[in-house]
Amino acid sequence: MSTPMNDITDPQAAGTRADSLAGNPLVRVQDVHKFFGSHHVLCGIDMTIREGEVSVIIGPSGSGKSTLLRCVNMLETISAGRIYVREDLIGFKDIKGQLHDLTPKQVAFQRRDIGMVFQRFNLFPHRTALQNIIEAPTQVKRVSKASARTKAMELLDRVGLADHADHYPAQLSGGQQQRVAIARALAMEPELMLFDEPTSALDPELVGDVLNVMKDLAKSGMTMIVVTHEIGFAREVGDTLTFMDAGVVVESGDPRELIANPQHARTKEFLSRVL
Amino acid sequence: MTALANKRTEGPDLIKAVPVRHPGRWVGGVIIALCLFLLVQSLVTNQNFHWDTVGTYLMDVLVIQGIGWTLLLTVLSMVLAIVLAIILAFMRQSDNPLFRYISWVWVWFFRGTPVYTQLVFWGLVAVLYPKIAAGVPWGPELFSFNTQDLIRPFLAAMLGLGLNESAYLAEIFRAGLKSVDAGQMEAAEALGMRRSKVMWRIILPQAMRVIVPPTGNETIGMLKTTSLVLAVPFTLDLTFVTSSIANRIYLPIPLLIVAAFWYLVITSVLMVGQHFIERHYGKGVDNLVPAPVKATQAVTAAHTTPEAAAATEEGGHV
User: Fold this and answer.
1) What is the pTM of this model?
2) Which residues of chain A does B292 touch, with a Cβ-Cβ cutoff of 8 Å?
């Protein structure tokens, strides 16, 4: 605990960031398909996210970008293909080439290392900010209440809300709620963070605070997959930018290059609308 | 900026408008007061109420015992019903189709037959099964006992009332669980929590906000349904005791008043209890002040200029 992996205030981390990008693949998405009934939402997605990479996914609504994100931690089950986080096949067990569903216990175990932040925060309204953060460490990892509380206060301090620990979600602004939600996800010390349009439900003036927290998190070396409409965030913080439309990856590459010089007509059209 | 600062410091002329008059309310009030007076007068002067008899039996030892049995029956039946209802509601939401089916059939049966019929049935169970034995089916018997000794009238009454109520409560609990936003389950599951734990720690406490008011209703209903236990027959509850006294002294009206009085008292106490339970489960949602402002912060705010106060408001510390 002396050097927390996700210490977002560590200035050293920023220097080592470029090196870590040459790191091992953390998430491998291989030819993933997803059907909702007869609706083909994801049509063969391939993607690799390396350790420490900030991977930003953009695209029009209905393009499948949120569904893809939800597949990574099994909030949706994929219909075909494979998703690996580290060496673990997500959602299934491969026994001699035959896939078996994971038991609920195994699914819960896989999710421990994957943090998720939702568009609508989804804080537990009957619990204070602090209680929200210590819930999973104490209940899932069986961390003692005292040490979970210490850790939670550190996290609240990092997201700038130490003096709001005893507030209920209803007493916090949207931006504050989302920062508590990020702290809640970080309390499980995940190796991967998923952000599902984290700023889309916020008033414009509150977006900046949340993005700043995410920037600091990226600097600390956290691996992040971010579905967003914040092109500025993608340009400034993203290591890769992926544009999705109608369930396929249209193009992917360095965010600055892709935004300045999109190759596909569809990408050009989308960017011209959101920029 | 100075103009803005002035706006915050200068006291405005507060509006002092003349409120709309409501003469109709005064007229209505007088009419209602008159009616109440006439009612009270008739209650006092009409000898047929036998208020002296009401006074004699209000604190009668049989009546007080009857209250005790009625309360005990209400509380135990409700506890049994609530425990069963939680299990039934969770089963109904389960992935396991067998659980869903069993829960549905249970509600269908116990809600679909009259509670009176069920009470008579539980009273007669000893006729159906005179002996209950535990052992290997078609094999040796481990132990057994006479049903007549086991299912005493009180137990029969409690089972009858509790099982019937569980079916109604199960639907109330199901509605409560459904009222919680699906995002809560997703968020908790994404943190690695098991489904059963999420239900118990995240979903149910939030559902209680919706569950408590109709359950309070049901508890008060149960209090009065206990008057049906003479069907078992269980003969110690408030209604049976008061009506048997009435039959003995040939004065039904004063003893009806005694019973009604005590039912009202118990209902009032239950309503107070419900208020506190509602307040507990409304934590974080109902009656929230905007934010708990610390006294020190309020004092500091009062002594700073508006500009400084504005700078330290929300988001200033990031």
Assistant:
1) 0.82
2) 166-167, 171
